[in-house]
Amino acid sequence: MYNKRTLAVNHVKEHATIYIFMIILFLTGIIFGAIIVNSMNWAQKEDLFFYLERFFGEIADKKQIENTEILKSSFFYHAKYLFLLFILGLSVIGLPIVWVLLFLKGLVVGFSVGFIVNQIGMKGLLLASLSIAPQNIIIIPIYIIAGSLSMIFSLTLLGKLFSRKVSQPVLQPFGKYVMFFTLLLAASVVASVLEAYVANEAMERIIKSFYNQ
User: Fold this and answer.
1) CA-to-CA distance for 99 and 212, rounded, in angstroms?
2) For 64, which DSSP code?
3) What is the rounded distance in angstroms from the CA atom of residue 200 to the CA atom of residue 194?
4) pLDDT for the residue numbered 2
5) What is the pTM of this model?
6) For the chain, how big is the Rg over CA atoms in Å?
7) For each successive 10 residues of the chain (213 residues), what is the average pLDDT?
8) How far is CA 29 from its chain centroid?
9) Is residue 26 a contact partner of residue 140, using CB atoms and an 8 Å limit?
10) What's the rounded Cα separation, in Å, for the pair 113 and 110?
11) Distance between CA atoms of residues 164 and 17, nearest Å
């Protein structure tokens, strides 16, 4: 256990620049998401809030999706996202797409939270904290790690392609790459469970309290 922890720490230290780059990229996406909300005009916000209000109304009328359905759709979404990052890591040309995907994930989070808070104020902040934050506390680090691993493996392949040593083994790094992504996929199950059984229930209760006031 101690050796595994030491290997993980050494891995992060060795590739600290890549991890920091990915974190900054994600945070930049969040900032841009918030900027987009502030740059929207009144009509655009009203149009979007109309659909959000209708969604709230359906939840208040007990027309919400079952927790098991949310669990399935959430897990399959994360699985597809991680699989895409995995595949892109296998090709050097896919590296810029990895950056775009991570940036877009941050942008969606920033826009979602920013828009809800902008339209509902403190109630929106409470709603975002209890319905968006729980699963994202886990899934955001998973995506950042997945994007970083994808970038690391791409750069490893690139290094081996231009290396003068012909007999550079690629099987061992690939085995670790597969193993890490399998662990991340398993961890995404926890995020999906939180989204289905914690965030969804919290969102339902908060929205109903809005309509009961």
Assistant:
1) 43
2) P
3) 8
4) 55
5) 0.89
6) 20
7) 67 87 96 92 86 79 75 94 94 89 95 91 86 91 95 86 62 87 95 91 82 63
8) 11
9) yes
10) 5
11) 25
